[in-house]
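Session log. Operator J.P. requested a structure for one protein chain; no other inputs attached. Running the standard single-chain path with token output.
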Amino acid sequence: MRIVTKITAGLLLLAAVGCREMPTVTVGGGRTLAKAGGATLDEQELGRALPAGLTGDDSVAFAELYVRKWIGKQLKLSEAERLFSASADDIEAKVEAYRQSLLIRKLDQFYVDERIDTTFTEEDIAAYYNAHKAEFKLDRPLVKGRIVRFPVNHRQSFKLRELVKASSADRLQDLADICAKNDFELKEFAEWTPWSDFAANLPLRQGMASEQLIRPGEVQQLRDNESHYYFFVTEVAGSGQTAPLETRRATIRRILFNLRQAEVIRSHEEELVDAALAEGEAKIYGNRNN
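Structure written below.
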């Protein structure tokens, strides 16, 4: 069966559409702009599709492109119906299943937005973490620490070395002041950081097994042609160990939210079923209680 496409003389009205000078039409009416595959496109539908603020040549170009795309869509639908008419029932069933799924999802979201508690206390987070530590194993080491980079000819390197391993706020401030005064590079890793990111700031030789340098509590030194590097690892969480809680807070919040969301949906569904059975709007046949 040959599909005949007809673009009517109504396309001459596109210039008027481009100026937003649409003729007065009744709902569902308007002059016909195009026909394809047994469907028609009228100027009212085109007017609804036209973006606000589009004028002149731009609106005319948009209208012409819209009409062509509309025709293409109708032709593809007609071809699909012709080729796959034998599976029409299956397609209708899938469309209906998808429609129902969208409606239920919208209803679920309505009750989630209305009922869910999005406040998660530190106790909530810690309780989940402690109950599921096996799920939070590290696949790479994490460290905290600091690195100081300074010229090879610096004469007070011993003092600098002592300050790098300091733990008191006053001594760490002394370290920051010396680095700022002498234009040394000081990098603090106060948050848990992948060792690979920490080590990227060091002049490691190619092939060096860098993880052997993870020695917490020990000031270590490397150098390149221009600089010395003192680095100090204050804490380490090794590969295969349980990840520190601080690194998993955001993940646990998402998990707790999803659990509460699922509980809201389950609870609402149970309420619906129980109420319908109690009021006789639903019945389970063969149930001794009904």
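Operator note: The two ends are 57 Å apart (CA to CA).
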